[in-house]
Design a protein that fits this description.
The chain has eight helices and six strands. It has 248 residues and is α+β, with helices and mostly antiparallel strands.
C-alpha cells in the first residue's frame, strides 16, 4: 500500500511540474513555433504522467499543461489571458484532449491489470484440474486447492473438513455471493465477515466436504476471485467424491 501511495504522490507532483518543465524547455522557440505544435508536445507530457500515475494525476497534468500553454505561449505573454481566438481554440482542445487521453491511459492500465489477474486465475484452475487427473490422493488435491484459496482470496488460513455439516457459518455461494443466517452479506463493501466462511464442495450433486476460510482483517476479495475460488472448490469436491475411499 505504501508503494502505491508513494507512486501516486510522485505522479501528482509530475503532473504539476512536468508540463511546467517542458514549457520552460520550449520557451526559447516561442516566437518561431506555431502554438499548435507546442500544444501537441504538451499533450505528450500529459500522456506520460497518465501512464505512470492515476486518473487524478492525468487530469492535473492536462490542467497544468493548459495553464502553462496559456501563460507562456499565448499573447499577451506571461499573463493568464488569451487575446487571439485561434489560441483560445488551441487552449480548449489541449485541455479537452489532455483529459481524454489521461482517462484512456488509466483505463488501459486497469485493463492490463485485469488481464494479468485473469491469466493468473486461469493458470490456477488449469493446474488444479490437471492434479485431479493424476494419481494423487484426494488429500493432495484438497491441500493444493487449500493453498490456492489462501492466495486467491487473501486469507489468513484455510482448512478442509470432511463429514457432516456443523453449525451455521457464513457461506460462499456458487455465484460468488456470501450469505449468513441473516441473509446476504455485502462483501464488496465490507469484505468477508469476521469469522470463518464455509465453501462447500460437491461431486455429482453429493456433498463431499467444505473448505473453512479464515479471512484476514479487512480482506475484500473481488467477485472474480470468489468465483475462481468456487471453481477450485468444485475440482476438489470432484476429486474427493470419485476417490475409492469415499465411494466405500
Amino acid at each position: 500500500m505504501t508503494r502505491y501511495l508513494t507512486r501516486d504522490a510522485a505522479a501528482v507532483a509530475a503532473a504539476v511540474l512536468g508540463p511546467l518543465g517542458l514549457a520552460a524547455v520550449l520557451l526559447p522557440w516561442r516566437g518561431s513555433w506555431p502554438a499548435a505544435n507546442v500544444a501537441l508536445l504538451l499533450v505528450v507530457a500529459v500522456v506520460a504522467v497518465a501512464c505512470l500515475g492515476n486518473r487524478l494525476a492525468g487530469a492535473l497534468a492536462a490542467l497544468s499543461a493548459a495553464v502553462w500553454f496559456d501563460y507562456f505561449f499565448t499573447r499577451p505573454y506571461e499573463r493568464l489571458t488569451i487575446s487571439h481566438p485561434g489560441d483560445v481554440t488551441t487552449f480548449a482542445l489541449l485541455l479537452a484532449v489532455g483529459v481524454a487521453v489521461s482517462q484512456m491511459a488509466a483505463w488501459a492500465r486497469r485493463l492490463k491489470a485485469v488481464t494479468v489477474a485473469d491469466a493468473g486465475y486461469f493458470n490456477r484452475i488449469v493446474a488444479s484440474a490437471a492434479l485431479t487427473q493424476q494419481a494423487g490422493t484426494p488429500y493432495d488435491v484438497t491441500e493444493h486447492v487449500r493453498r490456492q484459496l489462501i492466495d486467491v482470496l487473501d486469507l489468513k488460513d484455510c482448512r478442509f473438513e470432511y463429514g457432516k455439516l456443523l453449525g451455521q457459518p457464513p457461506r460462499l455461494e456458487p455465484d460468488g455471493t456470501v450469505t449468513t443466517r441473516y441473509g446476504h452479506f455485502p462483501v464488496d463493501e465490507f469484505g468477508f465477515p469476521e469469522e470463518d466462511v464455509e465453501l462447500r464442495t460437491f461431486s455429482n450433486g453429493q456433498y463431499t466436504g467444505r473448505f473453512m476460510l479464515t479471512p484476514k482483517p479487512g480482506s475484500r476479495p473481488s467477485q472474480r476471485a470468489r468465483l475462481v475460488a468456487v471453481a477450485l472448490a468444485d475440482l476438489a469436491g470432484h476429486a474427493v467424491g470419485t476417490s475409492p475411499a469415499h465411494a466405500a
